Amino acid sequence: MTNLFTTESKTIPITKKMVKEAYRKVNSNKGSAGVDAESLKKFQENLLNNLYKIWNRMSSGSYYPQAVKEVIIPKSDGGQRKLGIPTISDRIAQEVVKTYLEPRMEAIFSKNSYGYRPNKSAHNALEKVRENVRHYSWVVDMDIKAFFDEVNHELLLKAIDKHVSEKWVKMYIVRWLESPVQTQDGTLVYKNEQGTPQGGVISPLLANLFLHYVLDRWLEQTYPNLTFVRYADDVIVHCYSESQSLEVLNAIKTRLEQCKLRLSEQKTKIVHCQAYNRVRQKKYPKKFDFLGFTFKPRTKATKEGRLFLGFDCEISQKSKTRIIQKWIDLKFHKQSNIVIQDIANKLHLQTIGIARYYGYFKVWTLQKLFRNLENRLAKWVRNKFKSMKRSYTKAYRWLREIRTNYPSMFYHWQLFKTI
Q1: Average pLDDT for residues 188-215, to the nearest whole number?
Q2: Residue ranges of the alpha helices (H) in 212-264?
Q3: Is 309 helix (H, G, I), strand (E, B) or coil?
Q4: In terms of pTM, does the model score above 0.90?
């Protein structure tokens, strides 16, 4: 079987090495099965044959993707987000083309674009917004409505033509764009010349290219004295004045309409970044959410200890609610048959992720959030031990003793002196 991967490449310059490397990336990202119900574990049972099949078909131009599996994710505002999950084979094939194209796209992308790009992160985007709000008093907080569902194929392919001359690359991109979506009841829905699956491997790269021409480059040319931060389809535009904000917002609406996109009227707003040195603006909101954080007026301190009103970020209420709901859903406080180390093991990776992401700037802002976790642990103690059934005081005392003896049992115990 190993000899399969000693064969020379075919007419299309896709090598076995490219397919193998693409598989490694897809495997490291994990993910669920597509419409064929083939998991990564199942795919690996016949790995070499499966990879050979992908290479053989892609390198000869005969690779056709399967339908994309639709997965509905409930949103915090009561709405729904539709994800499109390709099969394992399609994810590997998309990764091949994405890796092939990414270097040339990176060469043209804006420095203000941060989402799904090598060596850029959500924290980088947040740091830039923190810096910008110190210099700009106004923000246009934009929400592009149903962006991944409404990307226009004709305009996207026009952008691709600017940077991609290889016919085989464009051929595969068109096939992925035209792949139908299989809904949860098994119905196949064919696209009407728009949309790219939110969940596809190549979709973020195509989305960044589309918005590079629709928004990034246009903003830099039309308003060179302003700046913005974009993370995928989340966009913050920084302005100097109220009148400028209104002008920019109206211009963006027109620009998006010209490119077959639209803003969400409910979620798009102008925000005044209130601080000690700025005149208060009563008719405008004073806060906005971005990447799970809320930017708002906050009391800050100088190096000398003097307090002043600044404008900065901390974990958003939506993020707190979502995290607490996950803790509630675990229902560990009702599991009196387990020991506390079992709970610590179950929560370990999650709490590390929460602390490192939301505590990146100031970890103390998470103290109230983790106090909720302590309350849930105290509930577990009361349900576990009959002697503490009616006493939270005894439950907290028991937890403090455990913490004194085993301070590293829970990750959040290492972050705060007290909870």
Answers
A1: 93
A2: 217-222, 242-258
A3: strand
A4: yes
